[in-house]
Design a protein that fits this description.
376 residues; Annexin V, domain 1; seven-stranded antiparallel sheet; 17 strands; PH_domain; PH-like_dom_sf; zinc; ArfGAP_dom
Length: 376
């Protein structure tokens, strides 16, 4: 005898309560409340919207809807761990697995790579980002005029570098970015393009920014993973005893925090100026504009064991600020004074600084601190 719809939905809740189904199959968000009937996975609402973009592969349904017995049986037979064993069986260690906090581009391309392109079932489909060499054209923002122009990029693990060329037939690259200091982070809002990627590298111990995008979402994510692959193989050579679990977090990183603050100069007598700040690990950089190629200055943030502290507020004699929510960073050399527009921003910045200061410095960070030149 067939169960009433309520009975089917109770059975579905039992399936959903299995440990492997307690988080979204695609981004790890807790308590997924949607399911793909065709793939047999439980997903969160945000990922269900991305599944709708591949209707030929995935048909989604809310777990609150009325379910019939055959649909519940399908979900019971598959579920998230069985789907993972099938669709994620050969994900390379370096490949970026997005979480619910990542941009839509990364989450959508992860879903398409798994279910539409079957990239992790057939290794040959991973060639675009795992071959150790990739070349192609990206739209790159001009340093001076802000225009995006088509530029040829090449990443070569053998040469240990990412290069780009200003002219199509140019023999010499305009810039050579060593894989050793390379980083990439998606910045769609800042760049004003859903595929916007910010690439950073060190040049003479200063950070250089490059902003790029591609009109094809897969192309852009393939570039991102090609950079991660190159970094992974570089680090495997640099740290031969390290496990994949130790190396993967070092491949690329998102900035700890970004936003506008006001700052004053070293004498604390100049007026405060509004600047865009980026906290990248232990480097606090400030720019006149969020899309500047070079920082106006960089501040090294060490650890509390090395006499770095962050304080709420500004010294009593401070003048010339427009925003009222001050922050003082004390370093062994001097104090840096900043002001935030809102109390919430002040709180978030202090929390970001505190996280870094609370973390003991690694041996190589002492070398960075020693080289660091505080720019005025």
């Amino acid at each position: 005898m067939a169960l009433e719809p309520e009975g089917n939905n109770r059975l579905l809740q039992d399936v959903l309560a299995r440990p492997d189904n307690e988080t979204c199959a695609d981004c790890g968000n807790p308590e997924p409340d949607w399911a793909s009937l065709t793939l047999g996975v439980f997903v969160c609402q945000a990922c269900s919207l991305l599944h709708r973009s591949i209707p030929h592969i995935s048909r989604v349904k809310s777990v609150q809807d009325t379910w019939d017995a055959s649909e519940v049986e399908l979900m019971a037979a598959m579920g998230n761990s069985a789907a993972k064993a099938k669709y994620e069986q050969k994900v390379p260690a370096f490949y970026y697995r997005p979480t619910h906090t990542d941009c839509k581009l990364l989450r959508e391309q992860w879903i398409r790579a798994k279910y539409e392109r079957n990239e992790f079932e057939f290794i040959e489909k991973q060639e675009p980002y795992s071959a150790g060499y990739r070349e192609g054209f990206l739209w790159k923002r001009g340093r001076d005029n802000g225009q995006f122009l088509s530029r040829k990029f090449i990443i070569s693990e053998r040469e240990g570098a990412l290069k780009y060329f200003n002219k199509q037939d140019a023999r010499d690259p305009k810039a050579i970015m060593k894989i050793e200091t390379l980083n990439a982070t998606f910045q769609p809002a800042k760049i004003g393009n859903p595929c916007g990627l910010q690439i950073t590298y060190l040049k003479d111990n200063s950070t250089r920014n490059i902003f790029v995008y591609h009109s094809d979402a897969k192309e852009m994510v393939d570039w991102f993973n090609a950079i991660r692959a190159a970094r992974f193989h570089y680090l495997q050579v640099a740290f031969p005893g390290a496990s994949d679990e130790e190396l993967v977090p070092k491949l690329t990183r998102n900035f700890m925090k970004e936003g506008f603050m006001e700052k004053t100069g070293p004498k604390h007598t100049e007026g405060f100026k509004k600047r865009w700040f980026t906290m990248d690990d232990r480097r606090l950089m400030y720019f006149k504009d969020p899309l500047d190629a070079y920082a106006r200055g960089e501040v090294f943030i060490g650890s509390k064991e090395n006499s770095y502290t962050v304080l709420s507020g500004l010294p009593p004699s401070t003048q010339g600020y427009h925003w009222n929510h001050g922050i003082t960073i004390v370093t062994p050399d001097r104090k840096f004074l900043f002001a935030c527009e809102t109390e919430a921003e002040q709180r978030d910045w202090i929390a970001a600084f505190q996280r870094v200061i609370n973390r003991p410095m690694r041996p190589q960070e002492y070398a960075v601190e020693a080289h660091f030149k505080h720019k005025p």
